[in-house]
TrEMBL record:
Keywords: FAD, Flavoprotein, Monooxygenase, Oxidoreductase. One of its GO terms (molecular function) is FAD binding. InterPro entries: FAD-bd, FAD-dep_Monooxygenase_BioMet, FAD-dep_OxRdtase, FAD/NAD-bd_sf. It comes from the Eukaryota. Belongs to the paxM FAD-dependent monooxygenase family. PANTHER family: HYDROXYLASE, PUTATIVE (AFU_ORTHOLOGUE AFUA_1G12410)-RELATED, MONOOXYGENASE. Residues 14-77 form the FAD dependent oxidoreductase domain. It comes from Cyphellophora attinorum. This is FAD-dependent urate hydroxylase. Residues 137-344 form the FAD-binding domain.
Length: 426
């Protein structure tokens, strides 16, 4: 028998089902890795803004607004090489979409087809049937179609989920309006700010400054018994401001007055999903909320989707891809599932205890500090010191019976001590 031909990189035709932040991110990553990418989006959408550079995380007393716990980000750029940028989701999406489709840059511009909702996938042929009657065929299919993913069901993953005990309403406040009304200008803090979240209570307000500080984005959490929005959808008619204020009779007056002038009051449905058993089957994989929906309390949903996208781009790059799609997706499953599952669990804990949130999770000197297990809290080091290339190299070396010579374990430097006392490799 003759020897098998050497395996080598080959260009793939890729379908990305879903054109949100995760979908556009993976389209960019695969374009840069040399592949032909088409994004299929079920809606017809159009989605510019300046980021806010965050300088701290501030947890404030629910009643008085006085700071309870502050985690400084002043050394963030020095430690991690980049500032901590806060973007509005729509602004980030537009940047990603423009980058994916522009002529400049490495690789072929991504093709975007709107009004294409996935209906079925033939795993044997790689063909996709859309509800508009179109049929397309691709080598690799990425399901980035969100929390209600059709692709997820088609690959045999059936979510075990339940409504959260917490509800959320989102609203926007224009900083100019707040200043004109004589209210405090929170944009000057350059911080992610939180009211409440202590003592196991569901009440919590999260403030994210966006658009260079021009917009204050509020996420308002309260017990589901005070208002159940699990059957509502984002993009429906704006709710009255009275409905937003109702759960908060004792809230710090400064932030309550901000909410009184809020616009675009919309519900955010919150469901708690148990971890899924896998993220890939045959030549199809899941990304972002399609593969690991999580509560928003670690601010990591979009981050994990972008990490997924990066992993796919690296795995199918000329450096690592040897033509075997199923090997690459098996590696994707092995490196991504443990990491996203950990973040998913930490986000659920932080829903009722803000001390479990990255940053506050290591503020042990705060008088209100209390966590479930100090050794298991999620830390900023664990998120930012992660090296995906080493993680991929380690797993591929094992799969290919090669020797891994790196000094990382699951992408983290061996010997690194985390603020929770855990030493990587011990």
């Amino acid at each position: 028998m003759g020897s098998l031909p050497p395996r080598s990189w080959r260009q793939l035709s890729v379908a990305v089902i879903g054109g949100g932040i995760g979908g556009m991110s993976v389209a960019i990553a695969l374009r840069r890795s040399g592949h032909k990418v088409t994004v299929y989006e079920r809606a017809d959408f159009a989605g510019e803004g300046d980021p806010v550079v965050l300088r701290s995380l501030i947890n404030r007393d629910w009643y008085t607004g006085e700071p309870v716990s502050v985690y400084s980000l002043d050394d963030y750029e020095k430690r991690w090489g980049h500032v901590y940028n806060m973007f509005h989701r729509q602004d980030m999406h537009k940047m990603l979409k423009d980058t994916a489709m522009q002529e400049q840059g490495e690789g072929e511009p991504v093709k975007l087809l709107v009004n294409h909702q996935c209906q079925d996938i033939d795993f044997r042929t790689g063909s996709i049937v859309f509800k508009n009657g179109t049929v397309a065929q691709h080598d690799l299919i990425v399901g980035a179609d969100g929390i209600g993913s059709v692709v997820r069901l088609l690959i045999g993953v059936h979510p075990e989920k339940k409504p959260s005990d917490q509800s959320c309403l989102h609203c926007n406040v224009y900083t100019e309006d707040a200043v004109k009304a004589g209210l405090v200008d929170y944009s000057q803090d350059s911080a992610l700010e939180y009211w409440g979240g202590q003592e196991g209570k569901w009440d919590k307000i999260v403030l994210s400054p966006c658009n260079g500080g021009k917009l204050l984005s509020y996420y308002c959490f309260f017990p589901r018994t005070e208002g159940d929005y699990t059957s509502h959808s984002w993009g429906s008619k704006d709710l009255p401001v009275e409905e937003l204020l109702k759960p908060y009779p004792n809230l710090d007056k400064q932030v309550l007055d901000h909410l009184r002038i809020g616009h675009e009051i919309q519900p955010w449905r919150l469901w708690v999903h148990q971890p899924y058993p896998y993220l890939a089957r045959d030549t199809v994989c899941l990304l972002g909320d399609a593969g690991h929906p999580m509560m928003p309390h670690q601010s990591q949903g979009a981050c994990m989707a972008i990490e997924d996208a990066a992993a796919i781009g690296i795995l199918f790059s000329k450096r690592f891809f040897q033509g075997d799609i199923e090997e690459s997706l098996a590696t994707y499953n092995e490196i991504r599932l443990p990491r996203v599952t950990r973040v998913q669990a930490a986000a659920a804990k932080a829903a009722y205890n803000i001390n479990e949130r990255i940053g506050f999770s290591v503020n042990k000197d705060t008088k209100t500090y209390k966590v479930e297990d100090a050794k298991k809290v999620l830390t900023i080091e664990e998120m930012n010191a992660y090296d995906m290339y080493h993680d991929i190299e380690e797993v591929l070396a094992r799969r290919r019976d090669e020797t891994y010579t790196g000094k990382h374990l699951h992408g983290l430097p061996i010997g690194m001590e985390l603020p929770n006392g855990v030493v990587i490799g011990q």
